[in-house]
From TrEMBL:
<comment type="similarity">
    <text>Belongs to the NipSnap family.</text>
</comment>
<keyword id="KW-0732">Signal</keyword>
<feature type="signal peptide">
    <location>
        <begin position="1"/>
        <end position="26"/>
    </location>
</feature>
<protein>
    <submittedName>
        <fullName>NIPSNAP family protein</fullName>
    </submittedName>
</protein>
<dbReference type="InterPro" id="IPR051557">
    <property type="entry name" value="NipSnap_domain"/>
</dbReference>
<dbReference type="Pfam" id="PF07978">
    <property type="entry name" value="NIPSNAP"/>
</dbReference>
<dbReference type="InterPro" id="IPR012577">
    <property type="entry name" value="NIPSNAP"/>
</dbReference>
<dbReference type="InterPro" id="IPR011008">
    <property type="entry name" value="Dimeric_a/b-barrel"/>
</dbReference>
<feature type="domain" description="NIPSNAP">
    <location>
        <begin position="145"/>
        <end position="248"/>
    </location>
</feature>
<feature type="domain" description="NIPSNAP">
    <location>
        <begin position="29"/>
        <end position="132"/>
    </location>
</feature>
Amino acid sequence: MPTARSLATAAAAVAFLLTLAPAVQAEVYELRIYKTNEGKLDALNARFRDHTMRLFKKHGIESMGYWVPTDRDDSQNTLIYVIKHESRDAAKESWKNFLADPEWKKAAAESGVGRLAERPESTYMELTDYSPEYRNGEGDENDVFELRIYEAAEGKLGKLDARFRDHTIGLFAKHGIKSVAYWHPTDSPDSENTLIYIVEHESDEAAQLSWKSFAADPEWKKAAAASGVGRLANRPTSIYMTPTDYSPIK
């Protein structure tokens, strides 16, 4: 029969081992940008619509949204999408299993897409604490989305987050800009200075009017001046996009 002392020793050993166990990993998002060769975007969309999304789900990858840029050149060859994984380790395992799946290999070979024009860009991201819960609205065929990437000056990302959390998102809504999601990249150095987000506008024209009225709003000017963010390190990247017909986010 074990003694009280041996039980205490065993309990202490278990407690020690638990401290060595890795922390539970949080779910991560992945922003991916594909560029096809000339004339191959329709074939790529068909492959995602008919095969890829279903195989993603099979391997634990959740599809969030798929978009094509509205810029005339990029609209001919670019697909932008966001997916979600249970964790970074789960993402690695999911991609491994997906790429090894015979059904995927067959679909890829028969799709007519061929090799992409460029290696896919991939950015792993985590939601900010102020990212809203997005719900599709009634929708309109003219609705456009906007992917924006901000790079804060050194040491200013926290202040940029505070400005979005406390002021910007509310003012966006005031001026007809619907927030979809806000993320930080998970990998250094971008994790230290970068904010990635997507917003929705009723149309291209509405977007221009919204940004104009937002920038002129005295409440925004006051919040910007008081935030301590200063100038961004680089001019924000802005990509206007329309959702594909198979995108969960419309």
